[in-house]
Amino acid sequence: MIQDDVGVERRAKYIPVKQKFAISHGVALFWLVFSIAVSYPWVLEFGKLVTLPIALFVIAGIAYIPGYMNAFMVSSLLFDRQPPFRIENPKEPITILIACYNEENKIGETLRYIKQQSYEGDIRIIVIDNNSSDKTFEVAKQIGEELGLMVTVISEPKPGKNYALNSGLTQVETNLFITLDADTLLHQEAVKYIVRRKLSAPEDVCAVAGAVLVRNSRGNLLAKIQEWDYFIGIASIKRLQGLFQGTLVAQGAFSLYTTDSVKLAGGWPDAIGEDIVLTWKLLENKQKVYFEPLAVAFTEVPEKVDHFFRQRSRWARGMIEALKVVKPWQHKNIYTRYLTSSNLLMPYLDLMYTFFWIPGLLLALLGYYWLAGIMTILVLPLALLINYILYSYQKNVFKVLKLRIRKNIIGLIAYILIYQIIMSPTSVYGYFQEFFKLRRVWR
């Protein structure tokens, strides 16, 4: 008997992770061979313009490899079943770390949502004021007292989220702690579910990433698009990685960690993607990181294009930092090694998409189909299938949590049609920043 996301027990044959990995690869390789066979005339035609080696190099980046990855993801997600919880009502004392920079207008609401948690254990809160120029320190202390929460407010004068979190870590006395962004609101069951997953997991699981969704999805079109990215795109990647026991980012916005593991890893490094690098160090230490879709928090996403551009380019830069600090082949777990190795391809794919697929799409509108070939069109059904599978999973999650999926059709259409056109150039800029060692900023 197993339990799915809605908590209903049903009979199913257990398939070991090793077999799931092999089957998913088999499906992906079949799709790759099929892609090459179908696109042969396209490659020859494009090769007449740019030579055959260049044609293969470009088409592999805009069609073959994305198709392979999508096929692997589809087949893997079809196997995804969250393991059952062994602990129903955990009462383990925990600490929540909240690093703040000029958050006097938001920290109060964040604390109020913590107050509403259904968790039965003690929740201790450490707010770290990271060189704010407003009244974050005073507001956090005052509202914590008004709500009757166990809040400790400390100051970290050195700018940088990693310095703030490391200062907070020195104050943690519980075995488990959660990191939470100051603009992130917890669902009332969030702490309970994320602790349940950790206490129900094997001993070598040292962190659990929560599911972060969008709280300001009623904003402009950019926010509406990001709602689907968080709801489907990011969730699908985390489910895939969690299935193979190596969620690659226990995001600082909402994740749970074992205190000893983070201290052993040296805390958060001085990096633009401090949560990515920390997660990879934990994985390098032969530990595992899970993902819990029922532990939901809502964060505020950028509504201005320049803010979005800075955030996502920072994420891309953080991935490169992690690849430099912890090489894929240094991971002990074969699945984590594979997943992190896949990230080595991301700069290549984003470059191909930015400098070939987007111009090729514009040329296709003018009647020149050199790059908008049949295989780039065939990648789309796989992407749609991934979105449908994840939508079904997330619908079950929302049912358990008594949440309603907001109708956001315009955002969904824009997400499917134009989101990658926005994301790839943004990521390329992040790679550019890291390559030329441009100045790093938290916000």
UniProtKB/TrEMBL annotation:
Family: Belongs to the glycosyltransferase 2 family.
PANTHER family: POLY-BETA-1,6-N-ACETYL-D-GLUCOSAMINE SYNTHASE
UniProt-recorded Gene Ontology molecular function terms: glycosyltransferase activity
Pfam families noted in UniProt: Glyco_tranf_2_3
The protein's name in its UniProt record: Biofilm PGA synthesis N-glycosyltransferase PgaC
Keyword Transferase attached: yes
Bilayer-spanning residue ranges: 21-42, 54-79, 344-362, 368-391, 412-432
Swiss-Prot/TrEMBL keywords: Glycosyltransferase, Membrane, Transferase, Transmembrane, Transmembrane helix
